[in-house]
Write a structure and sequence with these properties.
There is one protein chain. The chain is mainly beta. The protein is built from two helices and eleven strands; from the N terminus they run H-E-E-E-E-E-E-E-E-E-E-H-E. It has a six-stranded mixed beta sheet, with no helix packed on it. A hairpin with a 2-residue loop joins strand 6 and strand 7. The longest helix is centred in the last third of the chain and has 5 residues. It has one domain: Cupredoxins -  blue copper proteins (Immunoglobulin-like).
Length: 173
Amino acid sequence: MADRRAAGGPGRLGTRPAALHGQRRHPAPPVADRPAELTGQLLAYDTLLAREPLALPDGAPDRRYDLVLSGTEIGGQSYPDADPLPVAEGEWVRFTMRNTSAKWHPMHLHGHHFQVLTTIGRGPVKDTVTVPARGGEVTFDFLATNPGRWLFHCHNHHHMEDGMVRLVEYGRR
């Protein structure tokens, strides 16, 4: 009987890599070769400006959260045992995140766009922002205009699976 795991295709138990089906393998480039696209400058949020900034009011935010990212915790808590981060509809909310871990964390807020704050003012409008490792800090503002319960999590999926998730939950003012 043929080995079904190696046969591949619909209804089979597995597939073989394309290289095993008679396709030519290409050797890896020499270690000293560096692709041209890696010789440029790494963009920083300070160098990016929003073409259409968020319509944030003057003054100070209605609510602020200072969140330390450490290991797989946000503000010292891991999901599902984490408290929600309450907001009220219409509020101007500011999140400041400081990463004390050794890994970068791309933090994503569902249901909203936010404006990254930079040393030159208001930077890009995004829904995911990378917080660099070992002391990296990022602040963003958003308007609470989409009621519900929204995930706020690290987009490194293994971090999210280990609990690096909080809920942004709308309530009353």
